[in-house]
Amino acid sequence: xxxxxxxxxxxxxxxxxxxxxxxxxxxxxxxxxxxxxxxxxxxxxxxxxxxxxxxxxxxxxxxxxxxxxxxxxxxxxxxxxxxxxxxxxxxxxxxxxxxxxxxxxxxxxxxxxxxxxxxxxxxxxxxxxxxxxxxxxxxxxxxxxxxxxxxxxxxxxx
Length: 158
Prior knowledge:
By secondary structure, this protein is an alpha+beta fold. Helices cover 17% and strands 41% of the residues.
């Protein structure tokens, strides 16, 4: 794809509104890691499957590859700063952040609209990303307004 076509592709993708999530995992040494992702989708209800995509250049990708479990934390409108922190901080993203574990041991963030615990089903390399297909092991949801990302900025619904 030419640079011009690539720029147009990026512009087109910016026009797709998405929710914002933080995918979290425990490293083999039990250190929590997480990254802000908008590439999150449901795949199937029966069995319950989701997918996330992680950039191949992500420093934390090795931790996700090494684990059989991870969590997806769906952010509420009030968690914008958390999204920025997990997108931009190079290290120490969990320092001073409350988190807990439940069924799978993956880090869960309080105050989210949903916390979804997953077991890795498969990992597929596609372009410059790794696609994690995962079975949902546990899910909980809460009331609130979603954090939305559209046209390279955070937005509100309504």
